[in-house]
Give the backbone structure.
Amino acid sequence: MKVFICDCNGEIDIPQNLDFGDGVVVKTSSKLCSEEGKELIANSIKKNEKIVIAGCTPRIAEKFFAEFNPEYVNIREHVAYPGHADGKIRDLIKGAVEKVRISDETSTGGFEIKNKSALIIGGGVAGLETARQVASAGFKTYLIEKEPFLGGTIAKLDRLYPEGMPNSHTLYPLINEVVRDKNIEILVNSELKEISGEIGNYRATIRTRGKVIEDCDLCGKCKEVCPVTVDDDGIERKAIYYRATHPDSYGIDFENCTGCGKCAKVCDKIKLDETEIELDVGSIILATGMKEYDARMIKEYGYGKYKNVFTKLEFERKFANRLINPKKVVIVLCAGSRDENHLPYCSRVCCLLGLKEAKLIKDTDPEVDVYVTYIDLRSYGDFENLYTTVRETCGVNFIQGRPSEIVEKGDKLLIRTEDILLGKTIELDTDCVVLITGSVPDYELLEKLGIPSDGEFPVDYVNSSLSVDSNPRGIFVCGAAAFPKPVAESISEARDVAVTVINLLNKERVDMKTPVADINGDICSEVGCKICLDICPSGAIYSDGGIKVDPSMCMGCGVCTAACASGANQLIGYDDKGLLAQIENTVKEGDILAFLCKWSSYNAADKAGYEKLKYPENTKIIRIPCTGRVDAQIILKAFSCGVKGILIAGCPPDGCHYVSGNLRAKKRILATKELVEQLGIAPDSLRIEWIGTEESKKLVDILNEMDKGGNQ
Ligand code: FES
């Protein structure tokens, strides 16, 4: 093993005669981050030597040495800058040396980008735009759509959200470009059955039903004989039908087709069979858009029971086709949204969708009386103009309040609603009601792709995939599949994702980020608790005969390792034996041991160093990926080594880099306090705190308080 110690251009006084035991060679330098310094380290790596680097904070050192995957010791910000004695340098390095000596080998690993191609799921605007961009960079692109036609939901709409531009302005040119591009293979009536593999090397099994009807001359005989009538969001059609997008042929709606075969008898071009193909791709993009929340679930509004209560899509289609001619319309915003019984969240775009419907009615027939009920109206950004136009120019009436009930009275509907501004309940009669419901994601596909959603849109997954620290999966979500958004935003997001995919496919290999968890199957199978399966925030743990970790998905938080009672699950680089050895060799009787999260409180400690803030010299800091890695075993070890206090500090409650590692840590630490108390140790000597990067003062105050024996 080699220990490289840098004095950072003379900023650190390195103690003389450092000796870390057998087989450990110490090398000092004044500028390890220079080309010569890096070469020194590279030579050691070539000789398969384990490496410890002591010098500046790892936040900076990682810029220079990440590919060597060393163990870092921060002797500048955490010793020299706060003015602590150089004996602490010896302790911190000794702890790191013993950790590295006993730990399993860490390997940087990586993934080859073998398949220079992408699979895009969803043929709406987001999928079309992603396909167009990826293919234009020269990569083979497969675009699959489960419906028989491209275009997604907006192909059914009369006008685009929110200003009301006809959909043809955007959709038709986009479809034409995609169809023209020889790099794009379009598969309609096709669904993802399963995937296997990893980034750069996925195999996707695609199920296709009744391929495109080649050379269809649109004679319509198939439609005439089809016995199945379908209510397609307000418009009746047959199970075989034509939509003016792509392909330019009749298409079969296999959700409703009974497979009777009558259409195939009148046209030999129609095939009803099912095929499966396998595609080898390097990256997968989910762009399936959003689904409307099922309005039938809101029983008190009578959808499905009263014929004139519509969803927004049904109303828009019926109205555009003059299938209804109401004289009075009530539009109910937030139908089932921000409601614990239905969707607890706000779908963001529904208020504007409601305003669009109101404007569309008034643009078509200014004589129609239009009312909008709302809880809070959210017309964000420039769309305030749309609200003003709808209210002032179009003369739409707004009532603040959530309707409690809708009932049918003759050929009218009666709506009971609170009117917050009038302070009373009112009744409105109307010809029809439009329910503006929220949206839900495609849970089935999220699960197939291993994207955790927690019953809502996969916002956490999308956010975490923005982090450069996240492991590369090569699976992305864009457009309204990630969260409801307008068409313009979906297209812009599709372009961002396409750039990421193109960058990925241009590479020959991507490095695996460390640390990652690893499971010893022999130990695990004996216990079989499967606790880690449920708590992994990135869905990286799966059951496949035994419990396994997908290293391409693991983000290295260590939450699963801390939860594993058997010790089968170890976070490589932060495994139990390594951390226990580090603690034993770092701390002395009477020390305070601080486990600081590398995303937050560790940076606060660095900042305290820059600010020359004073805190006890007997504070020893260990950098951890997340507070969620700390478990009872680690705490008990530290107390058994004689520390007088332990601080676990991490990101604020909603700010954990791994979603909820900090909250899990809090639960665990509170439980451990009871254990500690049973051992005769004051429970207040164990603290868990939220300390952000900027909160150096808070950190220092807590450490000073702990040194004096103060309570939480
Ligand atoms: Fe900071 Fe979880 S990442 S506490």
In short: The longest strand covers residues 190-198. The chain has five domains: 1-106, 117-210+273-290+444-505, 294-440, 512-570, 587-712.
